[in-house]
């Protein structure tokens, strides 16, 4: 898969995971499906998903998304499973690295969503706590931001499997 196609597939998977977790809109999933088509990914179910109007998206994405991901060989775990929660964390990490979230917003979102219960994000929950104690600690916001960014890079580099 070319880098453009791989990036489009990853973006579609991220939007799907975030939509399932309630952190993205169905219309965003449809937009990602359109971007995937433009990037050269093409399957019958992806075309149907990309053809949804914004009005149809809220009703139809639930049924159209799984076959589109399946035809592309993209794994999709429910957010009720640990693999699904980890996929949400990785997608949010990529959003933070892309500038859509600040480091403190990223840690706050993960900490609120998962607390200290998801091993993959435990360090980020601790760093969210660190933001709360900066007035009493000897660390600066920039130091904590740098640690959060390093953790986000670690998470973003851990891609969930694709079927070949």
Topology of helices and strands:
Layout: H1 3-20, H2 26-38, H3 44-50, H4 54-71, H5 82-97, H6 103-114, H7 122-132, H8 141-157
Helix pairs in contact: 1-2, 1-5, 2-3, 2-4, 3-4, 5-6, 5-8, 6-7, 6-8, 7-8
Structural description of this entry:
The protein has eight helices and no strands. α2 (26-38) packs across α4. The protein is 68% helix and 0% strand. With 164 residues, the chain is mostly helical. Mean pLDDT is 92; it is low at 160-164. It has two domains: 3-71, no CATH class; 82-157, no CATH class.
Features:
8 helices, mainly alpha, 2 domains, elongated, 164 residues, disordered C terminus, 68% helix
Structural class: mainly alpha
- In terms of DSSP E residues, the strand content is under 5%
**Low-pLDDT residue spans:** 160-164
Radius of gyration: 17 Å
**3D shape:** elongated
Instruction: Let me know the number of strands.
Output: 0
Largest sheet: none
Q: Total domains, how many?
A: 2
> How many helices?
8
The N- and C-terminal alpha carbons lie at a distance of: 10 Å
Q: What is the residue-averaged pLDDT?
A: 92
SSE pattern? HHHHHHHH
Short description:
68% of the residues lie in helices and 0% in strands. It is built from eight helices and no strands. Helix 2 (26-38) packs across helix 3 (44-50), helix 2 (26-38) packs across helix 4 (54-71) and helix 3 packs antiparallel against helix 4.
